[in-house]
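INFO batch 0412 | record 1 of 1 | parsing
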Amino acid sequence: MTETFDVIGTPDIPAPIAEAWKSWTDHDYVLRWWGPNGFTCTVADMDVRVGGRSLVCMSAPEWGFPALYSTWEYTLVEAPTRLEFVHNMSDEHGNALEVEGIPRDVRHVITFEAVSPEVTRLTVHESSYPTAEARDQSSQGLEECLDKLVAAYR
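INFO prediction complete | emitting C-alpha cells
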C-alpha cells in the first residue's frame, strides 16, 4: 500500500452553521475567500450536488498566475453538516490538467459543527497527497485560505 499524506484545518467561523455552509456552497461567499494570500477568486461556478462539479478560479497576475482553475466534484452533500469532493486542477472549461507538483484526485471532506448558535467549527480534511512536500505546500495554502474565510465573516 502506498503511503499518502493528509492536511487538516479546523478554524472556528463566527457565523451560524447555515451561514458557514454557504462559505463552501454559494458563489458570492466562495468569491470572498478562495485562494491563498495574494490571490483573488475570480470564478465560482457552483453545482453543489452529488455528481455535480464546481469550477473555481484563483488569480494573482502580478505573480505570474493570471488564472488557476480547479474543479470540485461532489461525492457527498449533506447540508449543512458535510461536503465531500475530489479536487483537480483544470482548464477554464473544467477539463482536468496535469500540473507539476499538484496531485490529481485529492479527496476533501469538509464538516461543519455548531459549537454555539453563532460559531461553527469547520474541519477541512484533504487526503491523498503523495509526498510530504505536496502536503506541506497544500497545508500552507489551506491555512491562508481559511484565515481569509474567517476574516470574511468579521
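INFO post-check: The helical segments are 17-25, 27-33, 132-152.
INFO record closed
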